[in-house]
Request: fold
Amino acid sequence: MSKLFPRWMNHLPTVLAVVGPLAGVGVVAAVNYWFSPKYTDVGYRPEQPVPFSHRLHAGELGMDCRYCHNTVERAAVAAIPPTNTCLNCHRYVKPDSEKLALVRASGETGQSIPWVRVHQLPDYSYFSHDVHLSAGVGCASCHGRIDQMERVTLSQPLSMGWCLECHRNPEPHLRPPSEITNMAYEPRAAGYDPKADPARQRALQPPENCSGCHR
Ligand code: HEC
Ligand code: HEC
Ligand code: HEC
Ligand code: HEC
Ligand code: HEC
Reply:
């Protein structure tokens, strides 16, 4: 049996159970979801038009994530940097590199580099970066060790169950807001207790009700 059917079919009964009450939205959502699995497949690792390496830039060179993804703390979406951010350095660093040809061309024509999306939720679910970061959830909790990735790889399923698992008990995932982009920080190893942090003014209430994430 198990060899005859793709593995995702194991989850079908759960999906149908969830879909029942929400038939309209649910069926469309479920169809979109089950027939376009790549975005939620852990390990999804598309090739990019420029071989940009986080391991080099964020790891070895130690650049902070916010130098490039500079809207992440105040907006829903974490901006992908414009070509000029790259050219700040690459006008002088490796100005003749073949690997940077598309970056230079983009700078000249003004056409943005066609980066391929790796993380993407379906339209019917709502997510915002700013609230998570101000609550002290680090990039590493949701994106893994980006600073060690030569090419960005999906490291978490981004499924509803995954969101809810943290929402039901966020505390072990929290860190001091000053450490949100520190990839090596481990709240447990550092002995961090959110309840004892005077910087935290209020208790967090991540939504578990449907309309919190399906608006
Ligand atoms: C020098 C600029 C730069 C820095 C610094 C940087 N990034 Fe990126 N990031 C990019 C670019 C360009 C892309 C799009 C190409 C790609 O996916 O590699 C990207 C893509 C991503 C993606 C995937 C977006 C998608 O399509 O789903 C994530 C997640 C990400 N970065 C997280 C981080 C984190 C976390 C850090 C800090 C540890 C960081 N980045 C540091 C430039 C940067
Ligand atoms: C703060 C400076 C800085 C910024 C900003 C920066 N880079 Fe780099 N990049 C470097 C350095 C330093 C190297 C390594 C050069 C070397 O190997 O000598 C490098 C190497 C590279 C390489 C490999 C080049 C080769 O020939 O091996 C690529 C590709 C690259 N960067 C793409 C990008 C892209 C795309 C962006 C914008 C999203 C970007 N970089 C932003 C400093 C930067
Ligand atoms: C609570 C989990 C979570 C945290 C924390 C988080 N991200 Fe994300 N990130 C996501 C999800 C989910 C998506 C896909 C969003 C979508 O499709 O609407 C995403 C998408 C992205 C993207 C693609 C552009 C976008 O916004 O859709 C980039 C770049 C990115 N994240 C960078 C970062 C950086 C840098 C940090 C830390 C400063 C960070 N993320 C922290 C969950 C998270
Ligand atoms: C690692 C923990 C963690 C993960 C994973 C996570 N969240 Fe959250 N989420 C939180 C915390 C903490 C809050 C903050 C609640 C507060 O500020 O009271 C929050 C708040 C929210 C809110 C309410 C704030 C707002 O933007 O209106 C939404 C919606 C939300 N999360 C959606 C999602 C979705 C969708 C996913 C999965 C793609 C997700 N979250 C994954 C921890 C997490
Ligand atoms: C914390 C955020 C969050 C909450 C709360 C939430 N959902 Fe979801 N839901 C999501 C995300 C994210 C997806 C997309 C998952 C994916 O692509 O795998 C999703 C997908 C779905 C789907 C599509 C089928 C599937 O299983 O992927 C249905 C139906 C659904 N949700 C119904 C509900 C119902 C009913 C509730 C209330 C009991 C609810 N959701 C509460 C985040 C949430």
About this structure: Residues 87 and 104 are 8 Å apart (CA to CA).
